[in-house]
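A protein record pairs a chain with a discrete description of its three-dimensional fold. The following entry can be read in just this way.
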Amino acid sequence: MAQKKYLQAKLTQFLREDRIQLWKPPYTDENKEVGLALKDLAKKYSDRLECCEREVEKVIEEIRCKAIERGTGNENYRTTGIATIEVFLPQRLRKDKKRLLETRLHVTGRDLRSKIAETFGFQENYIKIVINKKQLQLEQSLEEQGVTHNVKAMVLELKQSEEDVRKHLQVEEEEQNEAELKEKQIQRTKRGLEILAQRAEMVDPETMPYLDIANQTGRPIRIPPSQRKSLMLAMGYHEKGRALLKRKEYGIALPCLLDADRYFCECCRELLDTVDNYAVLQLDIVWCYFRLEQLECLDDAEKKLNLAQACFKNCYGDNHQRLVTIKGNCGKEKVLFLRLYLLQGIRNYHSGNGEEAREHLNKARELFKELYIDPSKVHNLLQLGFTAQEARLGLRACDGNVDHAAIHISNRREELAQIRKEEKEKRKRRLESINSLRGMGYSTRAAKQALHQAKGNLDDALKILLSNPHMWWLQDSDPENNRRQASPSQESIDQLVYMGFDTVVAEAALRVFGGNVQLAAQTLAHHGGSLPADLQLSGEDSSSTPSTSPSHSAGTSSASTDEDMETEAVNEILEDIPEHEEDYLDSTLEDEEIIIAEYLSYVENIKSATVKN
């Protein structure tokens, strides 16, 4: 398959260089049939490439037919408005299948999915469509999603076709259940990440893991609040996608990676240039397309790889100098460059650029030799109580020296333990401050916002709350914290009157603050004994009673079920977040070794043919 793609790319280059238009005479006659001149052209190019003439002729004919189909589609689109979409199918359905589909662009994504399912024999609910590196949205029209004439659509299959199911009746139910589980898994991933993002600042520092972005030393980076949710969603989808890549579930991994890319693009450029997460994501996306054998669907693969390379340079410095200064070595990060060079070599080979492909593949091979780890050394470190992952990372950081690796791993453990201790204490102090403000009657949300504005200073946060009493209305989702008292107790009113406040004002303040005497007193005192106008209730508000639902107890079971489902979704996300902060740098390189050898054999064949010529 890879060799055929190279031949197609090379012949396309020749045709462009020679300015040959295959859809016109003498290569195509008036009936759009192949002309006799095509055979002479095939012989010319087969001699030039030292390839089988019959194979070259077959590929040129495929290019000619595709050009005619494209021209017919263009004419049809101009006259009727009916667009042509090139559909890229999963590997098992690619042979002898027409991959062009006609549709109007005002139809919805659901309509297109139904048409693709019907045309190519899928079950509609068990496929996902990716166009322009985005999942097709079912309720929006194709026009709204930027779908145009001659666009490429990739089909990701969550379940086998009905034909295959009929061949394997004994596992039909299992396959359907598997597909349904995968779809539910995708939805749970989305829900779990949304919950984590919403709870970004409501975690227990003692027990609750969460997503952070760190610099090269492992210390968290301060994230602007406006970008925190986007960044958490981006990192969450990326971690989920990486977990699926490890399990080789590429069809489910790709939507997660594309969602991660979308959310990362909502973050500022300065942030993306500070850390290597975004660069690693670009490699993972291209790798996923490659493993799905759909690189031709990724029109900007070269752009993504160049973006990754530029981002690595910004993060690590020229020749990794910044990385060496900070961490003392760059051995672990070289794994990323090995994959970068490998993907650059593959992309160039598929584009017909044999020399560039050889150059990048040789760089990948040299790096592989440098990063290869003797299994006996890993075993020695395992005997010392380290994990296999720590052993691989430590050996690569110390150029394969076992003693140095053991010291490096131990030191790194101590450094990270100290960083985690400091961060835990910092978050614990923050929670204590939040609880102090809550004890004064403020909601958790109001306390957090005030502390954020005060940069964590409790006294300044209290001043902010007293100066801005409307912040009291920043309520939590807990209805118990959102109560407003229609009729304050006489005892509470008397307490405020005893402090010197007017009876009417005291009662109004207690209504506003849900009967909280301390909060009402603080606010009245701060504002000279009066209630600010923006806090005074209208007659309708003051006569209202706390909202109580007669079905509250009946709904408890349903609410509990929803909470359990949310907990399950969050836990599923957290399970895929690796414990080791350098997990993304750890690789056995087994797949890379095989692929490097495979593609080097392809480019060596090109070299042999060139030498013969």
